[in-house]
Each structure stands twice: as structure tokens, then as C-alpha cells.
Design brief:
single chain; mainly beta; Jelly Rolls; 6 domains; 4 helices; 59 strands; globular
């Protein structure tokens, strides 16, 4: 079984240093520094501490179990810093200051690494065996009385088990985890224990709750005094089954009156105490790498706090947003008026979508259901031309009831393939890209998915990072000015009694109610002497009703329009095989409130002119072989319906998309790993190309493999990339890498480029 035996080391302080030892049992300590030829790192759990007398002088020490990293050796720096504690909440925080870590410099306030992310941290009695509850002790066995105490000298969170009568079977604790654990995770089980008997032992088992398999088994000795215990185990089996920890005290509870106590029980992943992810409560410096549950992945320089208090003078230059408890910025906004450049983000108007009755996760706007490939009109072709090559970021809230891959395209250019799962709920996904040219007359964001997805709150903005959502309608104000927007509140008077109120339901009203505009467009002014609804206008007791108009007038007043429905993308599973899926796309034209006298389909030719597509019906069956493609991957159709002298038009854009994901894969392997410390770099990168499950690397000439480097030194990258770096293999050394570098390999296959970064 995978009980992990940690090496133990006794770390003494030089008696002549006059230093004291402040560590206690249960502390997690760490040392980290850069030596001349390597980086030194050790993570240990303190098992005990004390003082030795050497040559008549006190030498404080601690005994630590090495959890991971380098073994402590004579001649090395043995300065350990406490990061957290497995049992003492008052010792769970620390300050971490670094100028050498990835994404440095920064200073972090970290806390709760071993407690907030604990898998089991009972603070009361009353748990039920086999029922997951991390906060309660669950006693297993018959003939046992229990007593819980919050604190006593030497221990906290104490559970006493007293034998009332002899019984067979397990007698002790069975703690069932609320979270699944998976192979090969390593777990830390820590607790304090003592018993009424002089000496004895407890049996520990960790495995399936139903008892079919055990990941690890072991024993720990117990005496009559409080002793700190650390048991480390490795998960051996897949994580789809519930897990439980059993502490069997039957040998300590053999006779009536015997008792044993377990205190400060904690089960935590080793990864939770070795990395700071999720433990950062505040940071000053470079924010890259912080994942906040509200705002997601942060980037750039600044300050991050979970609570902020400011007094005296507070000065802000830039953008100020105030969201609700979930962080949505749809309640209050002060900043640049023109940030979201996407037309009508409130409607989330993906082609072929339908609105669903659900509240948007952004707090404002529509939620739509999409069941087929679709495109979203984002901006004009002129806007795209004016911003070619500039970085943009597209963000969108997505929820799915199925697991799968969603692909996003800027026009015909693949942006990203996203993996979604039902358990994720509403997630705001973000993708940054450089704006690329296209023959499409308008800038479109194309979505490709083979399963239904819910969408809401799209945003397109210049820059590489997604900022808090800014709602837009069909009119954009292209200005550099700043302004303010409020979801509710008021103007003038007081905040609770404004002169002009912005109400919770979206209506606008004067203080005395003489003027009201409702969210559905109805309202009144002059104390109700002038009212209007969707179908009527009431003026001083005179009502104009829709039914009062004759049939001819009603027909003339009805809005007339046309629309097109149908798919928008042909997929090619293999760039070398001209077979598209689907074989054809049916486009259906619908006229609203009129019957056309004639119909016309046209396509936008490569010379910029509209040409007859040869169809006069309401149905157009488009194929990849249609002559209007003219060798392009984008085709725009225009449908025109004519009645009398009036013409009603709409357009629809189709794409040929070349994913290649299921056919071609490029894998880059490193002979000596991917992480090197202190500039000591020596490895060989090898590119392997697969078609499906078959390797075809040898079929591709060496000249089709091109290597490029990207680092923080753009000038050095340009010099490096100007050299010839071709072939299936690339040898790199310390001369090629300073601090951090990413090597890209482009493989040319039939005039298309398959790229992998490593």
C-alpha cells in the first residue's frame, strides 16, 4: 500500500548564534534560495521542537519530515520560514516576497493553505459514517460514548471516545471526504492523539468508502500524552469513487472505561501547502498568475486585496467599476464610454440562436441558446481594416449541459478551442488575438459547436486582457470621453429619495410619480394626462387604439422585414481531402408582414460587385462547389424581396473552416524536461507530427520545420529568429534562454501551417 515514509531530519541552531526557535509541531516550513550551481528548495512538516544542550550551551532544534524537495545537507543554508500550520489557525498566514520567481516581483499575503483547502477539518461532533461532512467527527463502532471539546491544554478540536462495553469490529473514526481525490495525489493526514492506556497504536486506512480497495494502510503509536502525528499517503486508484479515512482505535478501547482522544484532525493535499494558488489574500506587484473567483486570471502590475479600506484622500485615474457580490460590473461604471466595441452585446445576437428565460450571469442582457454553428456580427469591415494587426480580446459567458469542444474564429481564422463541462456552470471565457484581414465585408466572431450551449454578454475590446463587462446596444458612441453609467439609483435629492429615480425594475420616474418610463416602453407624464402603451396613446381622456384603425391602415403601419436562417460553416476534417461536412447548407428566407412580388439571391464576387446567384425562390441550397466561392474561404450572400417599389434586403456569410485538429497533431518533446534553473539549460527539442494516430514525421522534409523563440527580450528574439533554425530537432543551451523563453515550431503541411508552442 502507498503509505509514504517521509525522511526525517533534525535541524539545530548553532549554539553560538544566540537565535531562538519559534517553530511548533504541525508547522509547514520552507526554504528556497539560489546557490552557485543550482536552486535549493525543501518543504517540511515540523514534527517536534525542543532545545539540546551542546557544550553547556542551548541549541534549539526542530525535527521535520521532508515532504518534497532537496534533502538538507551540512554546509547549506538551513533558514526555514513557516508558511502555514496543519492544526493552528493562528499560525496559518505568512508574507512571501520574491524578485526571482516566475512573474516576479511581488509581495503576497498568504493564509489558509492548509485549512481553507482542507479535505477534512472537523470542528464539532455528530457526523454520520459514510456521509461526507468535513466539519464533523464521525464515530464508527458500537458501545462508544463521545465527548467534544473545543480546546484544552495541548490540543484543540478534541473528540474523546470512551468504551462502554466490549464489542467486535472497527471502533474509532471514519471520515468521508466531500471532494474526490485522484491518482497520484499525495495527502497529508495530521492529528494529535493520546489514550488512557500506557502504550498502544491506531490503525489507519484510506480508501474507497465501501471498503473494496485501500489506497494506503498504516499504524501510528499512541501514548498517554498528547503527541503530534503525521501520516502521508499516495492515492493509488482512480478518483471516481468516494474516499474515507478510518482511524481504528479498537486496541485502545478494549475494556469498559478505556478512552482515547483525537484532536486537530486535518486531511489536506500536499499540493495545497506547496503552492500558493488560492491562498493569496493580497498582493502588491505583478498580478500575473492570481486566479480570483470573481475576476478570473489577473494580469499586469497593481494591487490585489480581498478587502480594501481607504480613508482621507482617494484619487483614481482611469476606470472605476462597482459590481455586486459576484463581481459583475453591471451596477456602476465610471470610465471610458467607448470600451466594448461590439454592436448590441445586450441582444447576444448569434445567428440561429433563440432567447431563453434566464437571468444573464452579467446581471444585464439576454441569454440565448445555440444549437448549431453560428456567427456574431461584431463590427464593420472598415473598423477591422483600421485596426489590423492590433491586439483584441473577445470574452463571452458560456454554460453547457454537455461536455465538448467549442471553436471560435475571427472570420475564417481559428482563435481558440475551448473545452466546456456541465459542472463548470456559467464561465466567462476570454480569448486574445491579433486582428487579421478577411474578405468578409464585416467582422464576425464565428462559433462552432456540435452540442447546445447557452451564451450571454459578449464583449470585444482592444487590448490583450478582458476587463469588466460593459453593456452595449445597437448604437456605439465612438469617443475617447469618459462618463458614468448606473444600473439603479437616482439623480438629485437623496440616495433614498432622489429627484429622478433609476428603479430596480429598470423604470425611470420623477419623485412625485408625474413622469414615468417603464422598461417595456410604456409610461406617462403630466400626472397621467398623457399615457402611452405598446398599442395605444391616451391624451386627456382621448384614446387612440390599434383596433380603431382600418385593416388597410394597420397593414401599412406593420413593420416589414426579411431574415435568413441556416448554418454558416463547412468543415474540412483533412486539409488534403476536399470533403466538407455538411455536404450542403439550406438557407431559408422569411418575409414578415408582406408577400413578395419577386425574390433575388446574389453573391459578393471577388471584384466587390454583387452578382446573380441564379435563384428566385425562398430556399437556397448552398454547396462547397458553388461557383461564387471563387477560390475563397468566405462567401457572402444577399437576399432581396421586392413588393411594389420597396425592396427589403438581408445578408448571410458562410465560411470554409479548416480545423485539422482531428487529423494533424504536432507534439514537441524535450529530452531533459521543460524547466531549468539558474541559467543551466541543455536539452534537445524534437517535433513529431501525427495524422490521426499515425506518425508521419519522416514524410515531411526538414525544411518544413521552422523554430522561433519568444521571450521578454524582443530585440534578442528578432536576432535569434533571423538565424536558420530548421529541422525536426533543435538543440538549446543557456545561450538561447535568459530567465524564460517559449520555442514555437511551425510545420508546413500542404501549404497550411500546424503550430505548437512548447
Amino acid at each position: 500500500m502507498s503509505e509514504y515514509i517521509c525522511p526525517k531530519y533534525k535541524i539545530r541552531i548553532d549554539p553560538d548564534s544566540h537565535k531562538t526557535q519559534g517553530l511548533q509541531a504541525g508547522d509547514i516550513v520552507r526554504r528556497q534560495y539560489v546557490a552557485r550551481d543550482r536552486s535549493v528548495y525543501s518543504l517540511m512538516a515540523v514534527l517536534e521542537s525542543g532545545v539540546d544542550v551542546i557544550s553547556g550551551k542551548d541549541s534549539p532544534y526542530f525535527v521535520g519530515a521532508l515532504l518534497e524537495g532537496d534533502e538538507p545537507c551540512s554546509g547549506e543554508l538551513l533558514d526555514f520560514v513557516r508558511l502555514t500550520s496543519l492544526c493552528d489557525l493562528s499560525r496559518s498566514g505568512a508574507l512571501y516576497l520574491t524578485a526571482t520567481d516566475d512573474q516576479a516581483p511581488y509581495m503576497d499575503v498568504i493564509d489558509g493553505m492548509a485549512t481553507e483547502r482542507s479535505l477534512c477539518f472537523p470542528v464539532q461532533d455528530g457526523g454520520t459514517v459514510d456521509i461526507p461532512d468535513k466539519t464533523k467527527y464521525a464515530v464508527s463502532g458500537e458501545g462508544i460514548a463521545t465527548e467534544y471539546r473545543a480546546s484544552a491544554p495541548g490540543a484543540d478540536r478534541i473528540l474523546r471516545m470512551t468504551c462502554l462495553a466490549a464489542a467486535d469490529g472497527v471502533r474509532g473514526l471514519k471520515q468521508t471526504l466531500e471532494e474526490n481525490v485522484d491518482h497520484p495525489e499525495r495527502l497529508l493526514v495530521s492529528f494529535r492523539a493520546r489514550a488512557s492506556v500506557g502504550t498502544g497504536s491506531m490503525a489507519l486506512n484510506f480508501g474507497y468508502t465501501n471498503g473494496e480497495k485501500y489506497d494506503a494502510q498504516g499504524t501510528v503509536p499512541v501514548s498517554s500524552d498528547w503527541e503530534f502525528k503525521l501520516w502521508v499517503c499516495t492515492v493509488e486508484y482512480p478518483g471516481r469513487y468516494s474516499r474515507s479515512l478510518t482511524i481504528d482505535c479498537r486496541t485502545l478501547l478494549d475494556n469498559a472505561g478505556d478512552w482515547c482522544e483525537v484532536a486537530d484532525l486535518n486531511i489536506v493535499r500536499l499540493s495545497s501547502v506547496s503552492v500558493f494558488t488560492g491562498a493569496t489574500k493580497g498582493r502588491v506587484g505583478k498580478l500575473s498568475g492570481i486566479v480570483d473567483p470573481v475576476f478570473g486570471l489577473l494580469d499586469g502590475y497593481g494591487a490585489y486585496f480581498q478587502n480594501l479600506y481607504a480613508t482621507r484622500n482617494v484619487n483614481i485615474a482611469g476606470t472605476l467599476t462597482a459590481g455586486d457580490e459576484h463581481g459583475f460590473s453591471s451596477t456602476f461604471y465610471v470610465g471610458r464610454i467607448h470600451k466594448n466595441v461590439l454592436l448590441d452585446s445586450l441582444s447576444c445576437a448569434f445567428s440561429g440562436s433563440r432567447q431563453v428565460e434566464e437571468t444573464s450571469p452579467a446581471g444585464i442582457g439576454r441569454c440565448v441558446l445555440l444549437e448549431t454553428d453560428s456567427s456574431l456580427y461584431a463590427q464593420s469591415g472598415e473598423w477591422r481594416s483600421a485596426h489590423l494587426g492590433q491586439p483584441c480580446c473577445f470574452s463571452l459567458w458560456i454554460r453547457s449541459e454537455e461536455s465538448g469542444i467549442i471553436r471560435f474564429y475571427q472570420d475564417e481564422h481559428l482563435l481558440v478551442s475551448l473545452e466546456v463541462a456541465p459542472a463548470d456552470g456559467w464561465i466567462r471565457h476570454k480569448m486574445s488575438f491579433l486582428l487579421r484581414p478577411s474578405d468578409n465585408p464585416q467582422l464576425s466572431i464565428v462559433l462552432s459547436a456540435s452540442f447546445p450551449v447557452l451564451l450571454s454578454a459578449p464583449q470585444l475590446e482592444l487590448g490583450t486582457a478582458a476587463t469588466p463587462y460593459q453593456a452595449t446596444d445597437e448604437i456605439l458612441n465612438d469617443t475617447d470621453d469618459y462618463g458614468a453609467w448606473f444600473n439603479r439609483g437616482g439623480i438629485g435629492g437623496t440616495i433614498q429619495h432622489p429627484l429622478l429615480s433609476l428603479n430596480e425594475d429598470g423604470s425611470i420616474a420623477s419623485r412625485d410619480g408625474s413622469f414615468v418610463i417603464n422598461p417595456d416602453g410604456t409610461g406617462h407624464f403630466a400626472g397621467g394626462r398623457f399615457k402611452w402603451t405598446r398599442d395605444t396613446i391616451e391624451l386627456r381622456g382621448v384614446t387612440i387604439r390599434w383596433e380603431d384603425f382600418d385593416e388597410e391602415t394597420q397593414e401599412l403601419l406593420k413593420p416589414r422585414s426579411v431574415s435568413l436562417t441556416g448554418g454558416s460553416a463547412f468543415h474540412y476534417s483533412d486539409a488534403l481531402t476536399p470533403v466538407a461536412e455538411p455536404a450542403q447548407i439550406a438557407l431559408v428566407a422569411v418575409e414578415y408582414n408582406f408577400e413578395p412580388e419577386s425574390r433575388l439571391w446574389e453573391y459578393l464576387a471577388s471584384d466587390g460587385a454583387w452578382k446573380d446567384a441564379g435563384n428566385r425562390s425562398s430556399l437556397f441550397e448552398m454547396t462547397p462547389a458553388f461557383h461564387g466561392w471563387e477560390g475563397r474561404d468566405t462567401l457572402t450572400l444577399r437576399y432581396t424581396a421586392t413588393v411594389g417599389t420597396e425592396k427589403f434586403c438581408t445578408t448571410h456569410t458562410l465560411f470554409k473552416l479548416y480545423d485539422g485538429d482531428s487529423s494533424y497533431t504536432v507534439y514537441v518533446e524535450s529530452e531533459n524536461g521543460t524547466t531549468f534553473r539558474n541559467g543551466i539549460v541543455s536539452t534537445t527539442l524534437r517535433a513529431r507530427v501525427y495524422r490521426g494516430g499515425e506518425e508521419i514525421t519522416e514524410q515531411i522534409p526538414d525544411g518544413n520545420f521552422h523554430w522561433m523563440r519568444v521571450s521578454s527580450d524582443s530585440q534578442a528574439d528578432a536576432l535569434w529568429n533571423s538565424g536558420q533554425h530548421e529541422g525536426r530537432e533543435l538543440e538549446i543551451s543557456g545561450d538561447d534562454v535568459w530567465r524564460k523563453a517559449v520555442f514555437d515550431c511551425e510545420v508546413i503541411i500542404s501549404n497550411k501551417i500546424t503550430e505548437l508552442w512548447h
